[in-house]
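Checked the freezer inventory, then went back to the computational side. Two predictions to log before the end of the day. The first one is the construct we discussed on Monday; recording sequence and tokens without edits.
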Amino acid sequence: MSLVNLRTGLWIRMGVASLLGLVGVLVLFVVEIVLASLISFAFVEGVPEMAGMVLVLVLVASGFLLGWWLTATVLARLVSPGALSERLAHDGVSDAAAGLGGLFWNPTQVVPPKYLGLAGGGALSFILLYTLIVDVLEISAAYIGVVVGLGFVGWQTYRLVETELRQDGAVRSDLEEAYGVIEDDEREPELRARVRRLARQADVPTPEVRVGTTRTPQAATVGYRAEQSVIVVSRGLLETLDDHELDAVLAHELAHLSNRDAAVLTGLLFPATKASMVLTRFNHPIILVVVAPVYVSSRVSVAIVARYREYVADAAAASVTGNPAALASALEKLDGDRSRRPDTDMRAERSTAAFGIVPPPWQEKRYFDGAARFVVRGVLGTHPSTDSRIERLRNAADATESRTVTAEQQ
């Protein structure tokens, strides 16, 4: 399949996934706004009672404090402070008695009057504000609840988007840690020159390049924008692949940057992220029934688009290098090498596995292994099977060779 056809198929999948995501986000917004509005309405309706209770408590505490202060003042004229603790000195409890005595003689330190004033003033302000808005201006509590709910949902969504954008840096840190990146690796200058050459061929800005010490052959890319992205490769990758295969892998990673795959997949994953936030904040069976389908559809959509983007990146790499067979050979080596390695080699990079060029080896489950593999690798997997990618690339290589032979015969 040609790169143009692949990209057309990708746009169709992205369109469907985006539509599902948009519907999901709208459902989540409605759920959040309704719940936040109901909670805000209940709070506004209860303001007079709650503020009144606070005022009563403040008055009671103030009366108690006043009585305490008068008692301490009178006793201070009759008994010298510290006399009791001095009498208890022989019992070894003079320090404790002195501490308690200090609290008794200074009631305003135990209950500072300014805090009572703040609590009373705040409660009185709430009552006056409620009276002004609801009784004088005749603005209903339901309307206030909706406004507060909209503001709350808008603020939480803004914070969520801001957090997701910051995750770019967090993922990069995780990748560099998983790959064992070190500063000024001796292979970086050569690798940087290779990436610069391929970036010019692909017509994309040259990303940063980092080399990790791990012997597991792996490569990954992170970054929402090509000019602020980084390609991380391991020494194991550099030692496993020949020059043509290394070029093909780097061209594949550059294709991800050119297509802004990280930003696209983060956007498609937003409904699932927001659904998780809603379930965390409003943990109720009815909310679960409404929100769970949004979460599942978002995760499935992301997986479908992510898998197809791997095919597009493979085809783009083959187009840049003109050598589909090299990438097929590289994928075969990488997948085979990782499958032979013990599972302990992969545990440190579980959270960054989705960013690698091939998925980590499957860990067989004791029970229901087939079902687990189908869900994790089939339904929610971010990579298509390596065998299917190799087959596509080899078919493309055969087609290229056939066209070359035909051209030479003519």
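The second is the one RB wanted added to the comparison set:
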Amino acid sequence: MNKLIQELFSLEGKVALVIGGTGELCGAMAGGLAGAGARVLLVGRNEEKAKARMESILTMGGKAEFIKADVSTKAALETLLSEATSLAGEIDIVINGAGVNSPTPFLDVEEEELDRIMNLNFKSVYLACQIFGGYLVERGKGGNIINVGSMSGMIPLSRVFTYSASKAAVHNLSKNLAREWATKGVRVNTIVPGFFPAEQNRKVLTEERVAQIMGHTPMKRFGNAGELVGATLLLASDKAGSFITGHELVVDGGYACMTI
């Protein structure tokens, strides 16, 4: 491989904390980070899923550990920061990817569901940015945060009202923080998956829904998790992505550019 390309995308010596790393999409992103040389700390609640992901990373010669954590409160995130830095020394890259979806019709959305989705999809990201962003700013060595957004955070989609609102808030927060921390060397970007079948959206992918998605996606297919890796490495690299902050990097098979 060309030496320049290796240098641009190498993450050797970096530590990446991947919240939601036991899931399908963030798990693939974590694998990509490990393949580029980063030491990956997978954060989630399911130890069995974590074991499978770690085995995959270790098999390819990468470095990975699992931290079991609930990221829904500030106290829990402070504990996570303490555990992560005790384990790995420092953290350079933070990916916020935990999320949940629901197909409930708007007039039927109960307060409990609204609170649950907003808390996990937005509040947990907001708090993680406070805790880990604060850490990165205070240590004075730069770093970067990649928040996982959604096409529905850019273009309101039917049937996922609360999910769309929560992701739109993540997009807005990311741009705000990118501006706030630009002179501190801390980059904040949003990776925006189009339609990727994953646990959180399988229940909304009815036959009718799939037909609508395919009709609006120029590539006429769903994405696969591995196709998020290249975008992740671009944003994570301090060399390849050094001047990229406040950006929404769309990986969607052309969905966002489709009109009539």
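For RB: Strands lie at 15-19, 39-44, 63-68, 93-96, 143-148, 186-193, 248-251. The radius of gyration is 18 Å. Let me know if you want it refolded.
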